[in-house]
Design goal:
single chain, 124 residues
Length: 124
């Protein structure tokens, strides 16, 4: 809800940091594109750290690396081809979405359900 609210009314956040109209415009553009994904990012980070409890971090780290490479790659392309800054903002949004859904998919792995993986009966 916070991300969606900030995306709709960026002045709630931006007015604390700048009075410059050009900076405000870029900040508002970024928030309108990226802020709706903040909840996915927060949920993904929560699951990432919860994954540490399983002792199996392969998939969560892989998701994080994919996110980094995608955002960095799109940003480099944006610089190389003089794309609009919105391309970078969209890349950041896609990265946050990747973390959210990617770590959610990690819940499907056997690492989260060791008893089930061994065939034991129990609460899962």
């Amino acid at each position: 809800m916070i991300g969606i609210t900030i995306a709709v009314v960026p002045s709630l956040w931006l007015s604390h940091f700048t009075d410059d109209p050009q900076v405000y415009a870029y900040g508002a553009l970024h928030l309108s594109i990226a802020a709706p994904c903040y909840g996915l990012f927060g949920g993904g980070q929560t699951l990432y750290f919860a994954s540490q409890g399983t002792g199996k971090m392969g998939w969560p780290v892989t998701v994080s690396v994919v996110r980094f490479l995608a955002v960095a790659g799109i940003s480099v392309l944006a610089l190389a081809f003089s794309w609009q800054v919105t391309a970078v903002f969209v890349a950041v949004s896609l990265g946050m979405t990747t973390i959210g859904f990617g770590t959610l998919l990690c819940l499907r792995s056997r690492d989260w359900y060791p008893d089930k993986a061994r065939g034991a009966k129990g609460l899962v």
